[in-house]
Amino acid sequence: MAAVTRGSFSVFRRLLSQQYRRRCFRLQAVRCERTLQPLAFRCDRNFLVFSSRMLHTATVSRGPIVQFKLSDIGEGIMEVTVKEWYVKEGDKVSQFDSICEVQSDKASVTITSRYDGVITKLYYDVDATALVGKPLVDIETESGSEVIQEEDVVETPAMAREEHTHQEIKGHKTQATPAVRRLAIENNIKLSEVVGTGKDGRILKEDILNFLAKQTGAIITPTLFQEIQTPPPTPTPVAAVAASPVSTPAAIKPPPTTPKPVFTGKDVTEPLKGFHKAMVRTMTAALKIPHFGYCDEVDLSRLVALRAELKSTADARGVKLSYMPFFIKAASLGLLHFPILNASLDEGCQNITYKASHNIGLAMDTSQGLLVPNVKNVQLLSVFEIAQELNRLQVLGTAGQLGTNELTGGTFTLSNIGSIGGTYAKPVILPPEVAIGALGKIQVLPRFDAGGQVVRAHIMNVSWSADHRIIDGATMCRFSNLWREYLENPATMVLDLK
Predict the structure, then answer these.
(1) Are strands 135-141 and 343-345 parallel, antiparallel or unpaired?
(2) pLDDT of residue 34
(3) 10 Å Cβ neighbour count for 212?
(4) Is residue 134 over pLDDT 80?
(5) CA pair distance 340, 110, nearest whole angstrom
(6) What is the Cα–Cα distance from 238 to 395, expressed in whole angstroms?
(7) pTM higher than 0.90 for the full model?
């Protein structure tokens, strides 16, 4: 037994000696051997366990500390405000774990980790301003983990979060979010083989699904696109009201809550941040556009009856059907006849770009201020699909989680001022768009029918603004007449739906 113990100890002694020599502690290693040798006969098994633990500890090595920098999140954004930290110093993180939420003047953005490791330092406090290209946190990466010195992963919290990380594939950069990349890996799809339909060739989740459908011959339904995306938070009572049909005479609205005034007795100065700063810049640019205004009223009596018939069907499918999807679809049908209203003018006023997609925005009043998310490719969507997308945008807007993908790329805008109570408005064009419409509240007013009899009519006023540099009054008037015709006789929309 003593011989076995002596032999085992000799093996550990040699291993320990080699480990110490690597660390240039030869003298201490020799002393350790001489000191510990007698204990082998008295501690036998316990000492062997202790020695093995020492050996294990001695061989553990930590990875390098990486400065996780705030990447360029596009749209010319150079600084953001740190809204919330999801980690603290000493926390262990894995790839794709959320690190913090920041807010730019475009959208709220969630920063996710590229590395596995431990957070060793936070560079900013909450509400501090972080600069693009500067470190956000230090991460002590795990030994053996691959450290990629590349742009940091940025992902927005909406269903189609389109802040990007760049991945080198076959010599060129493919733009996709971590969620899209993960979806591609799970389905064994190479991103280099997928054609991105997003801005600047960005690969969206829809592109992955469409590619998968072509490979397998499967039919991908529209509902599947929502199922694979991040589920929105459970709607609060306020969110449910925001998603409810707008401008309905019988709509139940919560009583208005007016915050109590706070009198400090002194002037308060604070810097412009986030969306307020973006509004200043956007409205300053809009001031350069000569606005042409045009107003009209629309009799929505038939549309009110049609919506009443379809509402229960939409509710059964889990979608709140308001009037807005009809307004948006009618605008898209009108834009097919008047593409100049779905265009943009360059800064030098030398070229007009006619947009192929009808990305129709909806001005939305949120706790963060005025935001204008847009419904992408309305020309390809049904009224029901538009309603689905509006429900999603309203929930995200209420939760303050609208992302850059929802807030950029608009080509035409409708502002539903009537949801608050206004009848008329003078909307301001959102550059680089060239037209916008403001919708008033729906009122039940007396009107004369074809037989000269006074009847109840559901009347809504609309106010248009157009860029008078490229759009004349006659064009705006004809578009408005066509849009009004679709809404006053919604059955005619069926003839032009695709």
Answers:
(1) unpaired
(2) 40
(3) 17
(4) yes
(5) 37
(6) 9
(7) no
Q: Report yes or no: 388 and 380 within 8 Å, Cβ to Cβ.
A: no
DSSP per residue, 285-317: HHTTS-EEEEEEEEE-HHHHHHHHHHHHHHHHT
User: Residue 235 burial (CB < 10 Å; 0-12/13-18/19+)?
Assistant: middle
pLDDT digits (tens, 9 = 90+) for 77-104: 778 888 888 898 989 888 778 888 887 7
Res. 292 pLDDT band, cuts 50 70 90: very high
Percent of the chain residues past pLDDT 70, beyond the cut: 68
Q: Is 171 left (phi over 0), alpha (psi -120 to 50) or beta?
A: left
CA distances from 7 to 36, 40, 130 (A): 14, 10, 61
First-to-final CA distance of the chain? 88
Q: Which of 138, 365, 468, 496 is catalytic?
A: 468
* pLDDT tens, residue by residue, 308-347: 999 999 999 999 999 999 999 999 999 999 999 999 998 8
pLDDT value at position 98?
83
Q: What separation in angstroms does the CA of 452 have from each of 302, 443, 447, 448, 455? A: 18, 20, 9, 5, 9
CA distances in angstroms from 252 to 237, 248, 305, 417, listed in the order given: 12, 9, 19, 17
Q: In degrees rounded to 5, what are phi and psi of residue 245?
A: -55, 135
Per DSSP bridges, beta strands 92-93 and 435-439 are unpaired
DSSP label at 157? S
Amino acid found at 249: P
Catalytic residue status for 276: no
In angstroms, how far is CA 467 from the centroid of its own chain?
Answer: 29
User: Would you state the torsion angle of the CA atoms of residues 309, 312, 317, 319, taken in this order, to the nearest 10 degrees?
Assistant: 90
Query: Which one of 127, 346, 449, 472 is the catalytic residue?
Result: 472
Residue 116 known to be catalytic: no
- Mean pLDDT lowest among 88-102, 223-237, 426-440: 223-237
Q: Are 422 and 445 in contact (CB under 8 A)?
A: no
Determine the Cα–Cα distance for residues 120 and 124; give it in Å rounded to an integer.
Answer: 13
Contacts 24+ apart (CB under 8 A), 275-280: 275/103, 275/105, 275/368, 275/369, 275/370, 275/371, 276/369, 277/105, 278/105, 278/106, 279/369, 279/370
CA triple 224-356-279, angle to 5 deg: 85
How large is the average pLDDT for residues 388-404?
88
- Per-residue burial over 244-275, b if 16 or more Cβ lie within 10 Å, else e, is bbbbbeeeeeeeeeeeeeeeeeeeeeeeebbb
CB of 439 closer than 8 Å to CB of 350: no
